Amino acid sequence: MEHAPSGGTLSGAPSRPASGAPAGAAAAVRAERLTKVYVKRRSLREIGVHPFRRAERITALSELTLETRTGEIFGILGPNGAGKTTFLKILAGLILPTTGRAVVAGIDVARHPQVVKRSIGFVTSDERSFYWRLTGRENLEFFGRLYGLSAAQSRSAGRELLHVMELETLADRQFMGYSTGMKQRLGIARALLHDPPVLCLDEPTRSLDPIAAKHLRRFVIDRLNRERGKTVLLATHNLQEAEELCGRLVVLDRGRVLRQGSVAEITSGLPGRDHYILIVSGLESPPVDARWALAMERQDGARARIDAAVDRDGRAFSDLLRALLEARGTIVSCARREPGLQEIFDTMSPDEERREP
Amino acid sequence: MSLLRTLLAFLKRDALIEASYRTSFLMQAFGIFFSVLIWYFVSRVVNAPPGTPGLEGVDYFSYVLLGLALLHYLSSAMMSFAGKIRSEQMTGTLEAMLVTPTPIGTIVLGSSLWDFLLTSIKVLAYLAIGRLFFHVVIQLDSLLPALLVITLTVLAFSGIGILSAAFVLYLKRGDPITFLVASGSALVGGVFYPPEDMPVWLGGWSRLLPITYALHALRRALLRGCRFADLLPDIQALVVFAAVLLPVGILAFRYAVRKARQEGSLVQY
Q: Contact B130/B66 with Cβ under 8 angstroms?
């Protein structure tokens, strides 16, 4: 095995500010009508009782078509069972698609999985995926060898990444002594050992506390994307995280693409209502109109907090503001509340029952 | 060359993990010594004369010592591939290895190497203890043919071991073939007693097992100093076993990997 081809430089030479990669940039990852259908294995008892019954089929991905540009952070958003992990595992060569094609850096994943693996780094949220009795350094050196690095390259890459991940002082501690955040950072370090141009992060902040999660998000933006120019595919069910990190994203539900584009593009034009938080003083009673629903909560003194759901047509919101002012209210502050992921899903496919994986 | 480097990385990993258990080596050394001691006293009770059919003209203790030593190789070759896959699946490290460009065959082989190395050390320890403390005569002149016999035996049993790994990878459980071969080898393969001493309807099954030929050749080489030419019939049988079982195992393993990737169950257990 040769040293893997690199997409940036391990020493961190800036490639490009990436989250908003130029629209004309080359495709880093492309999915063409990618479909994955799992056929549930039948037990001997089932076969005996119903020998001719067709095995149950579960569609994890259905005709997924997308393209990520080189150097962007691309979000894959969806609830549990949406197909996010299946898609990333197809890219990583762990799962074969039923039909369709996935291409990483111009190479077909199903045909040349070993070649693609040199261009991709895969980070799971599974913190068990290291050898607990080895130190962080020993773990990185071992996995470096599996990525085709020589002993010296493996040592040097491991040393540098431990420094970048701020794990240098803990490098010689056994992995079992690491906190969850440290384990996650070591997971990212491992995925960077061969300096791949594309990084797949599968819910990287899932088990982190809010501070560690924020730290990790900044790291992804500043160090991985802006400094090193990595293309990042981020699977998450956290809309706020997707909005903070991703230039563009795809929303999946039960394997189907619900929407694709920027967060603004995805949330705009949805039927339903926009939500605003208003702090109003001097308001006696809230104005009533069929185009909005207001939940008012008195705060200290004459102030009130109003949770407003307003029809998404051109005039409703400005009419509401006018009505508040006419009712002798003074608008102290007004902030739009982005819809939660659940609200988006409910709006996009309100009639279908949600399911857990 | 790069394959060798990767395999060495696996050996280093397992050596470091083993060394992290401080008393592990010591306990294993005691285990080997006690095992030899137990069989020494059993042999004093058995006290079978060297002329007993199937004993190859050696005393019972020497006979059983070689049987035990080779049984370790059999266990390693048949159990370690599947065992390592299962253990890496359970610890979550298999997925982390499978996303690297290292082929899965190398991963399975590398993960099992430590077991083979440890087994070789154990076998040497058995022979050394037998020679130093219990005066078993080991014919070192026939070491090369003995090594050839061991290699062929390991290859043949590895075929079954890889087949077992395929079962674990695809069906998530051990296969019945391995169980039958392992039990059959211990029962009629000539590990603890000569199959010639058994009823023909039972002892006859020993001809279908590679261990029978391996032990026959190994005892003749190491205990009686027989030359290569004398061992040729057994070696030929072992070559046939290896030539059949190894490709069968590898093909089954490839099939299992493909099916598991299709089902998305490569890292499930």
A: no
